[in-house]
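Journal club prep — side note

Before the paper discussion, L.F. wants everyone to see what a predicted structure for a comparable chain looks like in C-alpha cell form. Sequence:
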Amino acid sequence: MSSTAFIEPLPVIEFVAQVLGKDVSLRTMSDADRVKIKKALRGVKVEVTHRGSVRRKYRVSGLTSLPTRELIFPVDEQNNMKSVVEYFKEMYGFTIQYSHLPCLQVGNQKKANYLPMEACKIVEGQRYTKRLNEKQITSLLKVTCQRPREQEMDILQTVHQNSYDQDPYAKEFGISISDKLASVEARVLPAPWLKYHETGKEKECLPQVGQWNMMNKKVINGCTVNHWACINFSRSIQESTAHGFCQELAQMCQITGMEFNRDPIIPIYNSRPEQVEKALKHVYNAAVNKSKGKELELLIAILPDNNGSLYGDLKRICETDLGLISQCCLTKHVFKISKQYLANVSLKINVKMGGRNTVLLDAISCRIPLVSDIPTIIFGADVTHPETGEDSSPSIAAVVASQDWPEVTKYAGLVCAQAHRQELIQDLYKTWQDPERGTVTGGMIRELLISFRKATGQKPMRIIFYRDGVSEGQFYQVLLYELDAIRKACASLEPNYQPPVTFVIVQKRHHTRLYANNHKDRSSTDRSGNILPGTVVDSKICHPTEFDFYLCSHAGIQGTSRPAHYHVLWDENNFTADEMQTLTNNLCYTYARCTRSVSVVPPAYYAHLAAFRARFYTEPEMPENQKSRSTRMANSSAVKPLPALKEKVKRVMFYC
C-alpha cells in the first residue's frame, strides 16, 4: 500500500486563506505572503469557473507582482492596452470582486496569461509533492499507520478482491498470481554485547529486543566541559526556570559519566530570536573574556517550540562562523523536565564534544571479522536533493568516516553542495591548479583518510563504504564513479596505496515488508507485532546472482517495520554473507543518539543527518526582485560552495 498527500480541490481564494491562516478578502497581500502563496501554488493545476460549463485547465506558473486592478495587457497588434478587470467584465460578464489581490500567472512566463484567483478552483486528484509540516506529517501517519497483522490482512483482501487469478491478460502471458503471501526463510541475528565504563555499576550490557537504557551505566569515554554558556530565546521562560533546567542537565551529564562544570561561565543570556547573530557573538566574546582567553566549548540554546529559521541560523553561525558546538532544547522540554529527555540530550552532548557513549565488546576484544584484524575505516555517504519545485537550490552531499579503530563508533563528517539533483558525489576526489603549488589534490575521501591517520596513528588498510539513497537504476553509474574517486584519493596519498574496498548500497525506500509467520507466538515478534530486530532474509526475494539481503535491525514502535535492503555491489575484502550481515547488524547498536538499535547502519544515518544539517548553510531564498541575478548564477554550471566548517567542528559529531 502506498499513501501520499493530495491537494484539497478548493476554490483558490479559500486555499490562499488556509495557507496564510487569515482572511484575504479585505486587505492587500504583503510581499512575504505573496512569496508564500507563489511557492504553494506553483505547478498546481487549476480550472476556471467563470465560463459556465467550459472548465479549461491551466498550470500555475507564478503570481503577478501587481494587484489585479492595476494589471493591463495588449489586446491587439497595435499594442492597445486593456485592464484585466475590464476584459473579464466585457468578455465574460464577470465582475472581479477581489481586485486588490494578485492574479495567477498561467502557461509559460513569456506570454502573460492572467487569471483572477476568484475565477479559479484547484483541480481534483493532484498529489502534493512539497514538504509537509509537522502537523500534516503527524495526521498522515495517524491515518496510514497500520500494525503488521492489519496490513497483511488488507493486502490479502485486496488481492482477493482484484481476483488476479481470473485475470484474462495474465493468463494470456502464462502468468499465475498466488493469493497467498510468499513464504521465505529468515534467521534472527543475536544482539551484540555493549561495553560501558568500568566505574558504572553495569560495565557491559546485552540489549533486549533492540533496546536498553542508561540506568547504572556510564559512557565509555566521557568528555570534559568546563566552559559553557546558555542563551534563552524563549519569551515564555523565566530566568529561574532556565537556570534550573541547566543545573539539571549539567547534573545528568555528570551522572552519565562526563566531567561537566555545574555552572555556566557567564549568567544565562536572554535574547530575541531575530537577534540571533548579535546574541551568539556577544555570548561567545563575553565567555572568552571571562575565562581569560579560553574558548567557549559548548552553547546550550533554549528555543521557542515554533522557531522558524532560528534553529538553522543558529547552527550555521555556530558551525561555519564561530566554530562552536551547540545543543538546542525546545521550550516544552524545559518546562517539563523529564529524566529520559535529559539522558538523551546528555548522550548527544557527549558525542558532540568528542566523547564516545558505548562501543561493541567484540571491538574492544578484537573479535570482529574483517574489521578488527587490520586498521579499517568505515564510510557513510548520502546526497539530499531539494524538494520538488525548488528548481535552483543545490543538492547536498555528505560523507562521514570512522575516526577510531578497532571500536569504529566515532565519525567525522564533511559536506558539500553540488549541481541540482546530481546523485554522483562530485567532491569525493578533486584536483585543481594552484599558481604556486601546481596541481593540488583534495576532496572529502582524502581529507577523511588523513584525519583517520591523525586520530589513530595508522593508515586504513581496508575500506567499507555504505552508500545511501541510490535507486537501482543508478547502482553501477554510482559504483563506477565513486569507487574510482576512492581509488584516486588513496593513490594521491601514496603511489601504491590501494586498500581493498567493499561498496554497499543501503536502501530504505522500497515496498518489501516482512511479517512473522506465526504472529500468535509472542516469542517470534516484538511488542508491536513486528518481526524481531536482527531478522535477515537473503534468499528467494533477493537477487538470484548478486550479493544482497534484507535486514530489519530495529524493533518496531508503531506501524509496520520497513527492513533496510543492503546490496553489496563491490567486495575486495571477500566478506561472507554471514560476516557482512553480522557486522551491519552489530553497527546498528552503536548509534550515538539513543539506546536503541536503529533501522539503517549508523554511518549512512550520520551522513543523512550531516547533509540535512548543511541545508541550513545554503543562502536563504531571495525576494522576487533580486532573484533574476541569483537564478542566472544557479543555472550556470557553478554551484556556490557551502561556507566551510570550522576545524574544531569537523573533528566531532556536530550533526548529532
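L.F.'s comment for the group: The chain has three domains: 12-122, 222-352, 365-510+566-650. Keep this in mind when we get to the figures.
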